[in-house]
Specification:
heterodimer; A: 408 residues; alpha/beta; Peroxisomal Thiolase, Chain A, domain 1; 2 domains; 11-stranded mixed beta sheet; globular; B: 428 residues; two-stranded antiparallel sheet; 13 helices
Chain lengths: 408, 428
């Protein structure tokens, strides 16, 4: 005879007590709030034409990565992430607290693979002219590759650099897998804190959009938008497509009691994070989202709900998500949608953490910024906003949802 | 303990057990072949024939040449290796039904990116202009190659395997460099302890020996250059050790809560008593000379399991055979184990299978379980010139019969990510 299963221990509240964010809109929460309330994105239509990108604002890297030697050991995506992680630690007020950093857990959602475009192009050109490709590769890769480039593009070395620069050493895990990696990183960090496996966790990622080599992967599947910039929902009428954006985003997730003991101030509460997958047959992603919404429904109050959508603009997925969100509204949920990609672009692994950050910012202000599109999908919202729902459907795979509430 | 039939551990958490294992390395396919070779002290390291090695300082590796991946690219072979290991583990565990595994997938996989044959193929598809560059590749990509997108997205391998085995929820692909395989197991342990899952499929796989990968590690001066004889190159803990040998392989473990395993009458292969982790903040490829992070990692694993160093019967070493790693691992074992250090046998599977990188933590966890089940400790081969600064019992050159009920398995990664697992026999 087996004994009854032990009851799951009660979950504890998970607070967002620190946010570091850099993107095309600026640095830090205040600059993002100002930019989201102003008209228009920061977008560059020409540098990588025909692909528009949202370029990173200029950063003084030395404020978060003081050693030039450390900066040199990183490719740009690692610098953005390490920089944002420093901002997050500062925002939480633990930047110079070794006792806390030593036991702070870390989950990074990382891409990587930034290459030496010049070296690759030169090697490729010569490769196409020889019959001895193997020999040529051996000779050229041995002489042309910078030894440190390997480390600068390894996914787990963003976490490694954060440990080195900011001394976060409690634990270190790196999730890979585009948008789903970002969803799962936040989901896992939340679950560990909620279940008492962790008291405090740094979680986030970064993406450098301003590179031809990074665009290649997505163009293979024809996911990229190839016209002058347009807001996410507006792209549907012209076949859809995603516009990438440079960003670095890290969150500090912390248990309420740990935050209280050290005098940390919550920006918002992260109620729950859900993730799933499907093969993207028509309706699959919407069916997952419906289930996720049902699972969260008990915790969604009566007031107006901000929905920060991670819609990429890729079709037919964007239309499917639009129909799902329209359906929620038709069934009586008082919601106001904002596809934040219309301002910060799409940042793959960093996109979900960025949405959580901007959702926390929204509920902390208690109001929602104006619509970002011109299709009428996004409606003005004048009511007080205390909760924000986040949706992220990856450009190829991965469906995530989260609920963020005003900290009480 | 009586109240829960022993299904909770000393800390009141669900006990996590292993009920299935699958292994493939350069020594062979499956548990039986691998174990026979490993305990015979046989090396799987050989001259690389997959691509020309002319002009390279290192020309050897533990490539798995008997598993098909045509045309070769790292994610294709990694996927096939993982597939073999997962099938064997699930068969042994007899869990779920075909294509319906009742839990999540945690996959330690090497980072992927487009490789040279595909760049060449794309450029030729648009006439191989001179010069060719990323604009050339983008022009070719725009014609549409969704097959290559799916092959080279990071999520690709895990998505394919999740489909094939019907794992539940969002599959997690992860990397903590050479600790990845152990991190996958750690994530599985945590999910079961939280009550998020009754079972988990944890996999480490690495099939990424191609010219650029070999050259990158070579440029970091991490690899042994003693190419002849190939089988003698991996020399962990020896005075003349000169680097690790890149290798391929995969291992899969089926993890379950003890309660779940018992309820379905599963044979229990061992218990995952603890996992410990500590990140280093010293350097990208070297650990702090004071050993703080590695010592902290070992201690965290023992603490998590609620045991003392004296309770460990055998250490499955990270033991890469680089001058730096083996010195630091020895220092840390001495610091944590004190007088007991000399009494605990410690051996390196990598002396025979090479360094399976992303897969290593998983492969070595599986071998640790077999060490317990078979009562035999695999040797550290190629130990001809002992290093007097490493006064440990490294089980030199020949396997040893021993009653082993608890193993500490270490994995330390580039980037300072360290994980140790405590693996024990099924409680009697």
């Amino acid at each position: 005879m087996t004994s009854p299963a032990p009851a799951k221990p009660a979950r504890r509240d998970v607070l967002i007590t620190g946010i570091g964010i850099v993107s095309s809109l600026g640095e830090g929460l205040d600059q993002h709030w100002t930019a989201l309330n102003a008209a228009g994105p920061n977008v560059d239509n020409s540098a990588f034409a025909p692909y528009p990108v949202h370029p990173m604002v200029e950063l003084d890297l030395s404020t978060q990565i003081p050693k030039r030697g450390d900066q040199r050991q990183m490719e740009p995506w690692q610098r953005l992430g390490t920089y944002a992680a420093g901002l997050a630690l500062a925002s939480a007020g633990i930047k110079d607290q070794p006792e806390i950093l030593e036991r702070t857990d870390m989950i990074v959602s990382a891409g990587g693979g930034e290459r030496d475009v010049e070296a690759d192009s030169a090697i490729l050109t010569d490769l196409l002219k020889t019959n001895e490709t193997g020999l040529l590769l051996n000779e050229r890769l041995s002489s042309d590759l910078r030894p440190t480039l390997f480390l600068a593009q390894l996914p787990n070395l963003l976490a490694g650099n954060i440990s080195i620069v900011h001394k976060v050493t409690g634990s270190s895990r790196t999730f890979m897998g585009e948008e789903a990696a970002g969803i799962d990183a936040v989901r896992t960090a939340h679950a560990r804190v909620a279940s008492r496996q962790s008291d405090i966790c740094l979680v986030g990622g970064s993406y450098n959009a301003e590179r031809l080599d990074m665009m290649l992967l997505f163009e293979l599947g024809n996911y990229l938008w190839r016209e002058d910039w347009a807001p996410v929902w507006d792209r549907i009428a012209k076949g859809g497509g995603l516009v990438t954006g440079s960003m670095g985003v890290f969150l500090i997730l912390e248990s309420a009691d740990h935050a209280e003991k050290r005098g940390g101030t919550p920006i918002a509460r992260l109620d729950d994070v859900l993730a799933d997958r499907c093969k993207r047959q028509p309706g699959d992603a919407a069916a997952i989202a419906k289930g996720q919404f049902e699972a969260l429904r008990d915790r969604i109050g009566d007031g107006p709900l901000a929905v920060l959508s991670g819609a990429t603009g890729v079709e037919p997925l964007a239309s499917e998500e639009k129909a799902f969100l329209d359906g929620l509204a038709e069934q009586g949920t008082d919601l106001a949608v904002r596809a934040v990609g219309s301002r910060i672009g799409h940042g793959l692994e960093a996109q979900f953490p960025a949405l959580v950050a901007l959702a926390a910012l929204t509920v902390s202000h208690g109001s929602l910024f104006p619509p970002l599109d011109s299709t009428g999908m996004e409606r003005e919202s004048s009511g007080s906003i205390t909760q924000a729902l986040i949706t992220t459907w990856g450009h190829w795979r991965g469906e995530g949802m989260a609920l963020v509430s005003r900290a009480t | 303990m009586a109240a829960n039939n022993g299904t909770l551990d000393k800390k009141g958490r669900p006990v996590v057990v292993v009920t299935g294992m699958g292994i493939v390395t350069s020594l062979g396919q499956g548990r039986a072949d691998n174990w026979a070779a490993l305990t015979a002290g046989r090396s799987g390291i050989h001259q690389i024939t997959r691509f020309p090695t002319d002009g390279l300082r290192t020309t050897i590796g533990g490539t798995v040449d008997f598993v098909e991946a045509e045309p070769f690219c790292a994610p294709a072979l990694s996927e096939n290796l993982a597939d073999i290991a997962m099938a064997e583990a699930i068969e042994q565990s007899a869990i779920g039904s075909r294509g319906d595994f009742p839990g999540p997938l945690f996959l330690a996989a090497a980072p992927v990116e487009m490789e040279w044959p595909q760049r060449e193929e794309l450029a030729r598809a648009v006439g191989a202009p001179d010069p060719s560059d990323y604009h050339t590749l983008l022009e070719a990509a725009h014609k549409g190659r969704p097959d290559l997108h799916e092959r080279f997205v990071f999520a690709g391998v895990a998505e394919t395997l999740a489909d094939r085995y019907g794992t539940k929820g969002s599959p997690i692909s992860l990397s903590t460099a050479c600790a990845s395989g152990a991190t996958a197991i750690q994530l599985g342990i945590e999910a079961i302890r939280r009550g998020d899952a009754d079972a988990a499929l944890t996999v480490g796989t690495d099939g990424s020996i191609h010219a650029e990968a070999l050259i990158r590690f070579s440029l970091l001066s991490a690899l042994s250059t003693q190419n002849d004889p190939a089988e003698g190159a991996a020399k962990p803990f020896s005075k003349n050790r000169d680097g690790f040998v890149m290798a391929e392989g995969a291992a899969a473990l089926v993890l379950e809560s003890l309660e779940h395993a018992r309820a379905r009458g599963a044979k229990i292969l061992g218990v995952l008593e603890g996992a410990g982790e500590r990140a280093d903040s010293f350097h990208r490829t070297r650990s702090n000379p004071d050993g703080k992070a590695i010592i902290g990692c070992l201690e965290a694993a023992l603490n998590d399991a609620g045991i003392a160093p004296e309770d460990i019967d055998y250490i499955n070493a990270h033991g890469t055979g680089t001058p730096e790693n083996d010195k630091m691992e020895c220092l840390s074992v001495e610091a944590v184990f004190g007088d007991h250090a000399k009494a605990v046998p410690i051996s390196s599977n990598k002396s025979m299978i090479g360094h399976t990188l992303t897969a290593a933590g998983a492969v070595e966890a599986a071998f640790s379980l077999m060490t317990i089940l078979e009562g035999r400790i695999p040797p550290t081969i190629n130990h001809e010139i002992p290093d007097p600064t490493i006064p440990l019992d490294v089980v030199p050159n020949a396997a040893r019969d021993a009653s082993v009920s608890r193993v500490l398995s270490n994995s330390f990664g580039f980037g300072g990510q360290n994980v140790s697992l405590v693996i024990a026999a099924e409680p009697s």
